[in-house]
Amino acid sequence: MPPSDVADREILPDNIKAINYDISIHDLEMGGAFGYQGTVNILSKIVKPSKDITLNTHEIKIHSAELLSGDKSFKSTGTSYDSAKQRATLAFADEIPVAENANLVIKFQGTINNDMAGFYRSKYKPTVAPAPSVAKDGEDHVMFSTQFESCDARRAFPCFDEPNLKATFDFEIELPDDQVALSNMPEKGTRKSKDGFKVVSFDRTPVMSTYLLTWAVGDFEYIEDFTKRKYKGKHLPVRVYTTRGLKSQAQYALDHAPQIIDYFSEIFDIEYPLPKSDLLAVHEFSHGAMEGWGLVTYRTTAVLFDEKTSDSKYKNRIAYVVAHELAHQWFGNLVTMDWWSELWLNEGFATWVGWLATDKIHPEWNVWSQFVSEGMQTAFTLDSLRSSHPIEVPVRDGLDVDQVFDAISYLKGSSTIRMLATHLGQETFLKGVSNYLKAHAYGNATTNDLWSALSEASGQDINSLIDPWVRKIGFPVLTVAEEPGQIGIKQSRYLSTGDVKPDEDTTTWWVPLGLQGKTGTKGTTSIALTQKEDTIRDIDDTFYKINKDNAGFYRVNYPPARLAKLGSQIDQLSTMDKIGLVGDAGALALSGQATTSGLLAFAEGLQSETDYLVWSQILDSLGTVKSIFSDNQEIHAGLQKFTLKLITPAVERIGIEQKPDDDFLTTRLRSLLVISAGLNGHEKIISEAKKRFELYTSGSDKSAINSNLRAAIFGIAMRLGDAPEYHALKKEWQTTLSVDGKEIALRAMGRLQSLDLLPDYLDFVFEEVATQDKHTAGMALAANPKTRAAFWQYIQDNFQAIYDSLSKNMVVLDRFLKTSLSKFDSREMEQEIAKFFEGKDNRGYDRTLGVIKDTILTRAAYKERDAEVVLEWLKANGYA
């Protein structure tokens, strides 16, 4: 039977609809091939008579299938597989008639793979003696868990694997007596099975999408706390599970999760919908975390924290990721997008509300400034390319969706939501969200459903305001022209290549101006630009600023004299304003709409800055300039001298010693300034870093490097070192017990300067480093001018092997290529990369190849255009 075609998507035939899955997984092979047997009984409604049933399977072998309807039994006469579309079709000799209730019983076998998708195994080295039955994979022990988003439930059991084919789930699994099984719902019962094994069953789930089903088996232990609020008369149990020996590192996440559940229950005005909330640390994980309903799975660095050995920056990550995933328990799980084209509804919202909850618990972290500096700038970078895509993007079939888990869906999505929430006021906005969730609970919804609920709550036509932001590609830059007492503003699409063609600039965005400095008004004037150009009168010529707190997702191009004046008025600017101005100046220099000298002069005015997030943006914007001119020795040396002069007062003020009363942001600032000073030639910092590195790695004083300074000191030592430093870091990677230690050592090793060390590093990355972390090495080698070209040569020479090892999980391969190839800055390299991939089957990373192309062309155009100007400015100001 041909697949049903909704105009923009290829979906399963609609002759049958699942109501409930009863899944039994048994006979797990605890080693060797890691196979298992399964039975699924799908209670279904037969909607149309037919002689075949098509469902999704991937790497599953079906043994038998039988459909029971009333008193009749229909045995399948055979199964045909379409592996490209990940489908199996069951054929029946007789036509199956329409029926309200029929049971489709399928016996099958699958594999507990090592691809971080479907039902899979994760390797780890236990810190204490594990339970006797724990399986081994080579030298390592393993735990088992699932990752079903987007389309990998079909790797674990035959199912109708589309987000709007919701059903309820009963689940049971056979496992060794001395291990623990977890799933979405509380345990229903345990019964003895064959010798040394038990079968654990779980309560029935609410109606939900297949991708949210989750289970895990392992040598788990947990710590537990309870919510303050009562749910159905009881405080809700919240647990964080780890493999044995690690539960003490789960405390930080557990301190946050119950508070966050209560906060969301309150602001959504809907109680948390399940009887428990579990968080599980998984040793190998493709993403950051996955929002299984009632059982959320995390990569270890996103949920575990050791007060003694972890870098405190991971506290910020854990608090936010826990909040993001718990937000999904309502927005995504209770109400699910209708189809993958609206993935942004899940991810953009969870990102915004995740930061909202983090800000509620940690106001001292100033997370909205962090969002402006990290989240928005990342979204701007991707959305300034021709190869960007709208927030809501057509997805032909489920296999196309993985590439949409990107900065547009998450970060442009959340920036758009933040802009709208600022415009409406948070209370009105959340009222609309609550109405949307109540109206569509346990069902699916579209972007328009959200706009309707927000329109009703606010009395405004939200669709007309926000639609271009969601359905059109790109964002505007506002170019400002000044006349006495007034300004002219013109909006046009921003492209980082600076060469927008008329047919690419047809969108007129609704742009909330957030204007400060209108004569006779205090604070911010709420007006919007709703046409291509407009004039705003009564402007205070001494001080005005557009886009207060960077609430709007757009860039502003001020006349050069105004930007310089704002640089001298920093006491009138918020942290978010400063970050936005630096980010805009850097981006407009990149596209040629402003000059690099404007960015450098503005940065000079911020020398006395003490805020970590502002420094982070300054050094990030300067880093882009330095990276692009890294092979021009004169410019590179001049930029180093400039950076060193800029940061020296700040780094000498903060010093290299951690102080007992340092707060979170001070700790982050020290780490940032120390590595910047060391890499730009600050002699005192360099000699201190080398001394501490030697004491630490020789084992004579492990306290010589504070855990928050490992990344900085390792990075300086490797950049200025050679083989001894490299081997010391490799040993650190092999022996560290810190949850973040491998990630930090791996990144630092990628700063190697001698190409003699590169073959060893690459062998090490592809033979020893976990698949989930390979892109970390790719990122380091691509950012390193010494290794970039040789690394690309290695990718070409070994592409088939790299493809074979990473493509079992396309998310991993896609991310690896994106991080490894985006730092070139010549048109020749763009051509060379394009030629290499020409004629290959690039499905699964074809969007990324477009992003790589546009990124390189942007960098190349900038380099060609600005080299002389930059050198001239550096000479005129005594840096070159």
TrEMBL record:
GO cellular component: cytoplasm; membrane
Needed co-factor(s): Zn(2+)
Cofactor note: Binds 1 zinc ion per subunit.
Taxonomy, superkingdom: Eukaryota
Biological process according to GO: peptide catabolic process; proteolysis
Signal sequence range: none
One example GO MF annotation: peptide binding
Cited InterPro entries: Aminopeptidase_N-like_N, Aminopeptidase_N-like_N_sf, ERAP1-like_C_dom, M1_APN-typ, Peptidase_M1, Peptidase_M1_aminopeptidases, Peptidase_M1_dom, Peptidase_M4/M1_CTD_sf
Peptidase M1 membrane alanine aminopeptidase domain mapped to chain residues: 252-469
EC number: 3.4.11.-
Residues in Aminopeptidase N-like N-terminal domain copies: 30-212
Entry keywords, A to Z: Aminopeptidase, Hydrolase, Metal-binding, Metalloprotease, Protease, Zinc
Residue spans crossing the bilayer: none
Active site per the UniProt annotation: 325
Similarity remark: Belongs to the peptidase M1 family.
Name of this chain's protein: Aminopeptidase
Source organism per UniProt: Glarea lozoyensis (strain ATCC 20868 / MF5171)
Lineage: Eukaryota, Fungi, Dikarya, Ascomycota, Pezizomycotina
